[in-house]
Each structure stands twice: as structure tokens, then as C-alpha cells.
Amino acid sequence: MTKKIKLRSLLIGGFFTLLFVVLISKVYWIQVVEASWLLGEAEKKWETDKVLTPVRGSILDRNNKVLAVEATSYTIALNPKMIDGYHIAENVTQGLAEILKESDVTKPTLVNKIRERATKMKPDGTDFAVYTEIRNEGWKIEKEKADQVRTLISELQTKLKLSAKANVGITILEDKKRYYPGETLASHILGYTNKEGEAAIGLELKLDQTLKGVPGMLSYEKDGKGVELPDSKINFKPAQDGNNVRLTIDKNIQFYLENALEKVNDKWHPKSLTAIAVDPQTMEILGMANTPTFNPNTYWTIKDQSDFKNNAVASRYEPGSTFKLVTLAATVEEGLFNPNEMYQSGMIRVEDRELHDHNRVGWGKISFLDGLKRSSNVAFVKLGIEKLTSPKLKDYITKFGFDQKTNIDMPNEVSGLIDMKYPSEFATATYGQGKVVVTAIQQTAAYAAMANGGKLMWPHIVKDIVDPKTGKSIQSFAPQVVRQVVSEKTAKLVTGYLEQVVSDQEIGTGKLAFMEDYRVAGKTGTANLVLPGEKTYSTDSWVISFIGYAPAENPRILVTLIADQPDLGGNYHLGGQVLAPAFKEIVGESLQYMGVASNKQTKMVTKPANKLTVPNFADVTSESAKATAKESGLSLEVFGKGAKVVDQFPKAGTEILSTQRIYVAMQTVDEMPLPNLVGRSLRDAVETCSFFKVDCQTAGEGYVSDQATTGEGEGRSVTLQLKPLSDKSSTASSSTPTPSPTPASNTKTEAQRSTAKKTP
Fold first, then answer.
1. 321 flagged as catalytic
2. Among the options 272, 321, 424, 734, which is catalytic?
């Protein structure tokens, strides 16, 4: 018995001894062997890391007008469990559907979508969910809609007899999004960033590395409840905001382009329209537009992806007669073009192929200059093949850069296709058909070479990269000459011949582009389309084009216009009427805006704008302020009654153009009513609203025709109705337009549809 007890005690003692050894070994392993790893894992649990998102850089026009900017947005989130508890699912559904509806989404569809979100269950189906978002309609919405949702929340709180701070199951989350204040303005240039903040197309994508900045980081230690520990280790790396990008485009000229294209589109219904405006001396892009267009603020509403395509750089086409520039310039450069030499128009045979003028029978025996004016194909076959010869023709096509990309600083550029092999293909190439396929930007660069003295230049749209904090340029992009394609003498002669194409009101094919105020050089083009899947040309579908520049004696602007398959009713003779009016409108408005003198001596022309520094008007009398402004050549507008100036805009020391107005207040702006803005340009009206700290909403484009002010004090807002000056009814029902201070600004309308900020 004793022996058994001893054995049992020995076994029990041995077991506990072994257990103790195992425990000691485990403690040693944890505290010594794995100590550093476990400590690292614990620190990870204790630490909270926050990514600090940088502000994406803005995109500006050449005058620092905002084209794309980071803005506050709002996202609508729902708590289905709370909504069910209050039994207001249908109230929430109908209310939000009315606020969030968009033109492309029918309300019943949206109602069903929101109802599904408002009554959403947890994945296991045991209870209602506590969080869900309404995408895309309720995701990153603008302030106006967020305010309407706040009103809905207030109404529901009243209905349920809840306090103003009570949660009814609708939450408005503040967020950031990319905002394009011009809406469709320059959309094909800018592209867009999607709702996740990722660059998608256009310059947003091309310049993403420059714009997006570098994220920062904040980390600190916390306890189990997530509260920061005293004396915790804090690591902070600030976010580096993205740089701003200043473009070469001018917001006003961009508006002139888009406004003119809209009129062409309404009248002729082409498949697409393309317009490019450049300074031919530098090849800086002043404007670039396409139809169909899109609004990057609501990019998801576009159903046809081709609407996003920038045809100015990403599409090729047979140019037709605008390509005759190459043949003309080459023969002038080689001394082979005699404007008075006669030839037989109508038809010419190249090997076994007959090539005809556009009227097939021709105009009898005419001079080569008349052949240019009438856009005779036969004349250019004789010039290009019989006089210049095919090898030299191809050399000049290459010199003008049609066999390669221009390397414009925009995405998705394609190259032209030059592929002539047989004599007949070289012959049709002399007048821009057959084996010659080019891009609009290539054509623009070629014509600019004639306007600037024979230099083929690099087209570019980015002027410089700007530090968002200092406003100073970090990197600039100067004009670049690619090569001298013809002599300055040749370029001047060609310009003279192209001017006659427009000025000859009897036979010039470009006569409808003639302007009384400015000398215009230009060329029309009408190219038959190749039938899809075939090798023959259509008899009733054309690509119509016009390229011209002005003033011919010292070109300041060059405009390329292309209409793909306008509705001509089968009559190509109407082609000249499609784009000439648009060209005249764009160039006329642009040159006046730029302050370029008219050929008419009786026409008053304002001087080009210079950069000036704003004086300090603080604590001076109105008479003294006016005298200082007059001496500096600035436009000054005085508001209110008082002894001395109490506020001004822009601030002293700001660098502005001489065409920009200065505003001073003799008393606090909150105490004064908003002045009459009827007759003012959008820029002047928006600046005045900003100075008076009044929220400004605009409708339409052009000049102010009516205004309606609501609210008081800091809550004041005004709605401005805009109409073009050409609309005679624009001020018919309104009071007399506010006279401009002296000297008057020569700035016309701006294509801006944004809300004026309260802070100037």
C-alpha cells in the first residue's frame, strides 16, 4: 500500500515538474526569443496611421483664370436601421429622389434605387444596416444640393418633433472633389478626374504627376479605445500639395470658339466639329474645342465614349484643298509659281486616270492665281507633278511635318499618314486627297509657318508650372522652332495669295470669310469621304474645312475649323457657308478683345493690356484714389459714401492687367446694397459680387441682362441672367447698363458659369 502511494506521488510530482519545465521554456521563448517581434506587433496595434491627402493643383488659363480646381463636396449616407425606427423610409426616398435627380436618370428609377438603400439589410439578413451611401447621385454633390438635403433633414426633424441636432438617419459627409467652373468649357483639353480622384483623360491625366502632389503621414500611439496616449511617439510628414499648371489658352477665346461651334452645330448638324486657335508667331494654343462635348463635372452621364475624343490631335482625315498650301508654298519657294501663267482647267490625265476640277468642266483657260482662288485641282496637279515633280513634292510634305507627330504636349496625338507610291497618288496628294491623311494640329502648324515667316513651330498648350503657395513659375515652356520650311519672302508671297482667296468677292472660294475690319488670309477645303469598307468616294458626304489667319500683314491669331459630314443636302456648293461665319465671329471677337487695331481708321480701338501693380488706396479720399488710378492708367470704381477708403480689391501690390477694374469702398460693403450690374461683362459682375461678399449664381452667357438679389447681410445672394450683346432683347426689359469707368476695359465676356466666392 505504502509502495503504491509512493509511486503515485512520484508520478504526480514528475508530471508537475515536467509541466513547470514546459511553462518556463514557453515564458523564455516569448520573453526572449520572440520579444522583439511581439513588441513590434503590439506597437502596430498601439499606433494610429493617417494618410494626409495633398491638394491637387489647379489648372489655369494664361491670365490665371481657374479652369480646374479642388472644391468642397458632400456625400449623402443613410442609416437604414434608424430610418426604419422612425418609419420614414418613404419620406426619405421621395425627398432625396427629388433633390438628387439628374437629367439622364428618370425619377422612378432613382426612387427605387434610394428606397433600396434606405431599407438595406445586413448581409446576414438579421437586421437593418447602419450605413450605406447613395452612389453616384448622392456622392460628392455640390453645396446647393447639400443645402437642399439639410432642408429635408430639418423638415423630417419637425415632422418627428425632434431637436435640430437629432439624427434622422441622413448624414451629410464633407469631402473634396475636382470642380470645373466652366462646365463644358475646354473639356477636351482638361479631361477629368473620376469620383475616386483618379485622373482619367486629357491634361488631368497627362500632367497627373505634376498636379497630384505627394501624400503625407501622421502616426501616434493610442490605447485600446483609440485615445492618444500621453507622451506618445508622434511622426508627422506633411503632405506636399500639387503644383498648378498655367496653360497658353485664353478663357475668353476658348469661349468664342465654343460659342461659334454651337451655332454651326445647330444649323448644319455635322457628325463632329473641331476648332483650334493659335498665336501663329509662337504656336501657343489659344483655344481648342470639339463637338460633341461633355461636362467633366458629370462625366458619367456620357453614353458615347467617342464624345471624350479630342479630334484636334487624335483624329486623321483627308484634308482636301486646305492641303494645297504645301504645293503652293513649295512651287513659290522653288520659283515655279507664276500667278499670271495660263493653263487649261477642267480635267487632266495622269497615266490612265482622269482627274477633274470640282465642277468637272472647269472655267476654260485661266491663270494659276485664278486657279488658286477657284481651288482648281487641275492647277495643283500641274504645279505639283509637272513643275515641282513628285520627289520634291514628297520632300516638302515631309518638311512641313505631315509624316510625323507634332509632339504637342497633349495626350493621344496621332501622326499623319503619307503613303504615295504611284503617279496618280502623287497627283491627288497635290490637292489633299488619296494617300494623304493628316491631323488638324498638323495643318494648323503648317499654316502658321506661312503666317510667321516660314518657321514650322512646336505647338504647345502648357505655358508654365506654378508654385501654388508663392504663385511663382517653377518651370516655363518657351516657343520652339522645329525648322525653317520656306524663306520669309516665300511666306509673305503665299500669305498675299491666300489673302486674295478671301478678298476676291467674285471668284474666291473663301470670300465669305472676308472681314471689313481686318485683312484675312485663308483657304477652304472640301474633301469627299471614302465609303466605309470600300475604295470609292461618297458623292454626298464631305469633310468641310477652313484655315485662316489675321491680320494678314501681322498675324495675331490663326483659326482652323473642320466640320465632319455637315448636312448639305447633297450640295457641296454650300460648303463655303458652313464655317466662314464662325471664322469671322471668332477672329473678329478675338482681335477686338486682344486690342488689335482695325483697318478702319474710324473704328475706336483700345490699347493692348499691360501688366500693372495695384496702388494702395487705404485711408485716402475718393478724389485722391481717382487721381492715382488715372495716373496709373487703371479703371477705378468707387462704392459708398465716406471720408476715406476702407477696403479695396484687388489688394495693394497685386499685379494685374491694365484692363482689369479696381474697386474701392468708402464704407463697409455689408452696409451697402449690391449695385446695378446690368450691362456688365461676366468678369466685372463676378468681381463686384466678390467685393460685396455676395454669393453669385449665373445663367446663360455674355453680358448681364437682369439681376435678382435675395437675403440680407452675409447671407445675400444674387442670380444674374446673361445674354450676348448681339441679342437685342438682352437689355430690353432692364434698366440702362451701368457705364464703364474711364478708361473702359476692352475685356468681353468670359465663359464662366461658376459661383463667385464670398472672399475677394
1. yes
2. 321
